[in-house]
Structures are given as C-alpha cells and as structure tokens.
Specification:
SRR1-like, SRR1L, alpha/beta, SRR1-like protein, 7-stranded mixed β-sheet, 7 strands, single chain, elongated
Length: 361
C-alpha cells in the first residue's frame, strides 16, 4: 500500500481523513472522470519491474519468505491477499509495491486478490488485465483465510486494518498466515499501551507469539518498504496461549473521529452522495467538487513529501550544529586573543583547524 492513501499524520488527522474519504469515494463512483493513460501506466509499471527483479532487496525478501515457509513446513503459497495498495498510476510507492506483488505472484504461481477504495476505474481494468482478482466490496480488512498457507500483503496499512484482519482470523488457523505489513515490534514498542488497547488490541495480544523478520530496507527508494516486516504465527508459539485466548474475541469498534481507514458505511454513503451530485453535471465540471479536490490535493502529504521533509530536517539540524560550533569557536578565539594584538596566519589557521601548505614567516 501506499501511505499516500491510508496512513494518517496524527496532528492533521481530521483534514487527512477528509481527504482520504473524498479521494477514495470519488474512485468508486466517478473515477472515469479522472483521466489516466492506461498505456503509459502499464509501461511505467513494466519499467519498474526490472528495478525490483534485479535488486538486492528482491533477493533478500524471497530468501526471508523461503525461510518462513520452511518454518511452516511448506514450500508453497496458495493465495495472496492485498489491502491498501493505493493509486499506482499516481504514486511511486504504490507502483513499486504493485511490482513486488506481481513478482510474488509469478514466483509462487498463485492467485492474488486485492482491494483499495482508492483504485480508479482504469486502474481496476489494468489489474484485471494482469490476471489479478479485484475484490468488489469494502471488507475493511476482515477476510477469513483458508486452511492453506496465505500471504497477506498490507504494506504501510493503518494499524486498525491490520487489527481487523487479525480479529477475523482470531484462531489457531493464524499459523497458515504469512503477514507482510508494518513492523509489529515498531507498533507495540513505539506506542502507549492504552493507545494499542484502543486501536490495535489484537496486534498487542498476538505480539508475544509472533515471529517477526524485519525486511532490510535497501531498495533504491527507501520509502516504499520502510518499517516493513514479515510476520508468522507458528503452531508451536500458538500452542502456548491460554485456554480462553481465542474465546475472548470482540468485533473491533473505533470512534468515528479516530478511524484511520475508509469504512464500508462511508463507502456506500459517499458513493450515493457523489452519484446524486453527478446527475446534473459531470463531477469534474462541478464547481464545489473542483474546490474540494483542490483543497484536498493542496494539503496532501505523500510518502515522498514526508521523506523529503525528513531529509530537510536532518540538513537543517546539521547546519544549526555547524552554526553552534562556529559560535563557540568564535567566543574561544575572542577570549584567547582579546588585548593581545594581531594574530599570525599560522595561529589563526591552528585555531580553526586549517592545515596550511607551508608555515608563513
């Protein structure tokens, strides 16, 4: 998934969530109004494939998947389920995440089913042409896996979607699941317990029985698979749970103001509203909708933007440190030479740590 579509920045949760709801529901109703060139999108996707195919990252991830398959006493993946991929025609992260999904499909020769409310109509056409099964309804991540080994692909999905998936498979059959998503250790160790109890209770509960393999983030575009891990739940680990561990199961409920994903109710409600608006005129020609779109995209915080901001903050910190160091040097020089008259070039060079090619007289 692209964090562009699902991940929220907490300090802007309300604004970001509005942007998500609007963009995602637009894709379900009037996505044909957003023009994309299928041929260009497919070409860019195929251009991205070799970067993954011949990368060290691909070697590492296939090695790690083979490792967990061996732990699970199998060498086959029967199905891949993907949630939250995002708009691969528009976002770099989504494009490469889809490229990896296709690589895994070919490597393991298995069926792939996927869903994201953000998909455009032409993106869905492309996915179907690539022999992928596009799920028709918003399941909110609540799909029950079969008794065969299933690979769940949820890169950069919000914790609540991961939590929903665990709830729907809250039994010993989790041992047939390989889950590639946000690092559980990062989620648990970097969050307050009350916060986890509220938004990721099932992640917190299964964490002690989870085998996690962190992916080495050495892909060319580091934001695409950052903080991502492979998780499995071995039969041996699950045999250690308490007798009522699986019985204590309640459908996750999140307050509307806290929801980090597009719910099924929102999908249906927003679809009806947008269809009603579009009866009189095309959506892209509606002045109100034009304004909303402009506001949503002007405040969009994509993974690439956040990554760039992180680098800029690092550069700013280094510049400020250099400034503080120079100020300290200046004060030291001033204190040392106040009232002593003019310094020689060599003395000045020694003070600032500069090596002269020769010692001037």
């Amino acid at each position: 998934m692209s964090e562009d579509e699902f991940i929220l920045v907490n300090r802007r949760r309300r604004r970001k969530k509005f942007e998500q709801v609007f963009r995602d529901q637009l894709s379900l109703t009037e996505s044909n109004e957003i023009e994309i060139d299928k041929e260009i999108v497919v070409r860019k996707l195929f251009d991205a494939a070799p970067k993954l195919k011949y990368s060290v990252f691909k070697t590492h991830i296939l090695h790690n998947i083979s490792k967990v398959l061996k732990i699970l006493n199998t060498n086959k993946i029967f199905e891949i389920i993907c949630y939250g991929l995002g708009r691969f025609s528009q976002h770099n992260s989504s494009k490469y995440q889809l490229a990896l999904l296709l690589l895994l499909k070919r490597h393991y020769n298995c069926q792939v089913s996927l869903y994201d409310p953000a998909f455009l109509a032409k993106e869905i056409e492309i996915l179907k042409e690539l022999k992928l099964n596009v799920i028709e309804t918003n399941e909110e991540g609540k799909r029950t896996i079969s008794n065969n080994v299933t690979f769940i692909y949820m890169p950069h999905c919000p914790r609540q979607l991961i939590n929903n998936f665990l709830y729907s498979n809250w039994n010993e059959n989790l041992s047939n699941c390989i889950l590639l998503t946000n690092s559980f250790s990062d989620i648990v160790e970097k969050s307050l317990k009350w916060h986890l109890m509220k938004f990721a209770n099932y992640v917190l509960r299964i964490y002690p029985y989870t085998t996690e393999i962190k992916l080495q983030n050495d892909f060319e575009y580091t934001e695409v698979f950052s903080a991502t891990s492979i998780h499995i739940f071995t039969k041996q680990s699950l045999s250690e749970v308490s007798s009522n561990f699986w019985v204590d199961k309640e459908n996750p409920h999140y307050q509307e103001k806290d929801i980090e994903f597009i719910t099924a109710d929102e999908t249906n409600r927003s679809s009806q509203e947008l269809r009603h608006i579009s009866l009189s005129e095309k959506l892209k020609d509606n002045i109100t909708m034009q304004y909303i779109l402009e506001q949503a995209y002007s405040h969009k915080e994509t993974s690439e933007v956040l990554c760039k901001a992180q680098k800029e903050l690092k550069n700013l910190a280094e510049t400020y440190l250099c400034y503080l160091t120079s100020q300290r040097k200046y004060k030291d020089i001033k204190m040392q030479y106040t009232g002593k008259g003019e310094r020689s070039i060599k003395e000045t060079a020694d003070l600032v740590g500069f090596k002269l090619p020769h010692d001037p007289k």
